[in-house]
């Protein structure tokens, strides 16, 4: 049987599904959501509209957008008892661990939307997850810093409301900053979907068995956590902190090029983009806007980031291998400037990617040709042999 299957480690040349959601041309640096270029969406749309687009396939009319927006706002609260889940974690728990646990636990709260064969239940589950993810993410943050949870406010936009739930403190006025809220919204748009990446493939594989959508999204969060994937924004910032000062950069660039050294420049390179990551372009501009509005250009970590970017873009090794700073390099710097601790970076990625996971999961469930995911293997183990009694071994 061994010779019957194609060996494709890392699935570099295997399409696992047909999809109409996101198109990437890695050589040209193109990324389209349902046909719309990512830069146009980042500049002119907003995250809620992009959610509608990804889920339903077309941009909404004014009425459709209003209804969808209201529906998402209406679902933003968490059941009061849900707070017990957060309080069960150690204070120093990684917020991604909290996300995996609590999002999976939604399955235990919303029994009415776990039937994957019921289209209405699937829709409600989708709305619930998009709506509740900021509330869950903000609670993970508040729990870590030891501050009281802040409830969602349905009169605020998605991104502004999320920032308020993270940074407002009871009994103190909270002024939302329009530039930061816009930047947050853009970060969400840029991370919303990216076709069959590791976490999305995980969601599809989990969902292919008929598992409930909350459990599938929890699986996606687990996969996203790794430093080669969504954990790269956190890893990139940790790396910048480790480098520490501009004069140490050449040493780290040398390490990254050394094949016998496992060190890699985090936030550089991409499986599909071998030209540039179109999201990184937008993210870089947003990053600079945020640094300017906050007046933090002199922050040492950020200076290391800017200098590393300059050096790596000129170094022949990185140029020849077409290794560019990816979206997570710039999003990490932006989020740090906005006041998020590094442990929260991947949580924000998960928050934004939830709609992509949901759109891809729904597409799979509605696709009559999809079957349970069940890869085969090239067996390289022992040939048949007879059991040997313990006394004879
Ligand atoms: C995301 O898939 C998606 O779409 C993911 C994502 C999404 O939106 O869902 O875009 C989000 O995950 C972004 C990627 C974030 N990861 C990082 O920033 C971590 C650092 N990057 C690398 O680990 C790596 O570049 C990957 C994982 C992103 C891509 O890995 P590949 O496609 O398997 O490429 P590779 O590891 O085979 O690298 C090719 C060559 C190798 O050298 P050679 O063996 O050919 O000589 O480039 C070298 C690598 O050693 N290389 C690097 C490098 N990345 C690749 N060398 C130094 N520093 C690096 N960062």
From TrEMBL:
Under the heading SUPFAM superfamilies, the entry gives:
Citrate synthase
Keyword annotations for this protein, in alphabetical order, are: Acyltransferase, Transferase, Tricarboxylic acid cycle
The annotated active site, in chain numbering, is 270, 328
- Which organism is this protein's natural source? Maricaulis maris (strain MCS10)
The family classification in the record reads:
Belongs to the citrate synthase family.
Q: Does the keyword Flavoprotein apply?
A: no
Quote the NCBIfam families the UniProt record gives.
cit_synth_I, PRK05614.1
The protein in question is named: Citrate synthase
Query: Where is it found, in Gene Ontology cellular component terms?
Result: cytoplasm
Identify the metabolic or biological route this protein is part of.
Carbohydrate metabolism; tricarboxylic acid cycle; isocitrate from oxaloacetate: step 1/2
One GO MF term attached to the UniProt entry:
citrate synthase activity
Keyword Nucleotide-binding on entry: no
Q: Which GO terms describe its biological process?
A: tricarboxylic acid cycle
Query: What is this enzyme's catalytic activity, as reactions?
Result: oxaloacetate + acetyl-CoA + H2O = citrate + CoA + H(+)
């Amino acid at each position: 049987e061994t010779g019957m299957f194609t060996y494709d480690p890392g699935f570099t040349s295997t399409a696992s599904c047909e999809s109409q959601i996101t198109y990437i041309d890695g050589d040209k640096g193109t990324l389209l959501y349902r046909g719309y270029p990512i830069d146009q969406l980042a500049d002119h749309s907003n995250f809620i509209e992009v959610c509608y687009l990804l889920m339903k396939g077309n941009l909404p009319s004014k009425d459709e957008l209003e209804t969808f927006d209201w529906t998402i706002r209406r679902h933003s609260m968490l059941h009061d008892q849900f707070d017990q889940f957060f309080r069960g974690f150690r204070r120093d728990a990684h917020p991604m661990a909290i996300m995996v646990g609590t999002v999976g636990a939604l399955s235990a709260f919303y029994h009415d939307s776990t039937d994957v064969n019921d289209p209405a239940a699937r829709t409600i589950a989708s709305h619930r997850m998009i709506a509740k993810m900021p509330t869950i993410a903000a609670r993970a943050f508040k729990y870590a810093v030891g501050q009281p949870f802040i409830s969602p406010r349905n009169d605020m936009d998605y991104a502004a409301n999320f920032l308020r739930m993270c940074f407002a403190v009871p009994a103190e006025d909270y002024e939302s900053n329009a530039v930061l809220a816009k930047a947050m919204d853009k970060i969400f748009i840029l991370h919303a979907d990216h076709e069959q990446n590791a976490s999305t493939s995980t969601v599809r594989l989990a969902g292919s068995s008929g598992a409930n959508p909350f459990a599938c999204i929890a699986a996606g969060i687990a996969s996203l956590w790794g430093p080669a994937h969504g954990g790269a924004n956190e890893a990139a910032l940790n790396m910048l902190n480790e480098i520490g000062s501009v004069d140490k950069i050449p040493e780290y660039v040398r390490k990254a090029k050394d094949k016998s050294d496992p060190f890699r420049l985090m936030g550089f390179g991409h499986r599909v983009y071998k030209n540039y990551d179109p999201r990184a372009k937008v993210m870089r501009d947003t990053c600079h806007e945020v640094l300017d509005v906050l007046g933090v250009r002199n922050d040492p970590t950020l200076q290391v980031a800017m200098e590393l970017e300059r050096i790596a873009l000129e170094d022949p090794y990185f140029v020849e291998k077409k290794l560019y700073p990816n979206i997570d390099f710039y999003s990490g710097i932006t989020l740090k400037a906005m006041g998020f601790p590094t442990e929260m970076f991947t949580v924000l990625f998960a928050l934004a990617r939830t709609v992509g996971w949901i759109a891809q999961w729904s597409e799979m469930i509605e696709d009559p040709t999809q079957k349970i995911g069940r890869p085969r293997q090239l067996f390289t183990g022992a040939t048949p042999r007879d059991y040997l009694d313990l006394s004879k071994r």
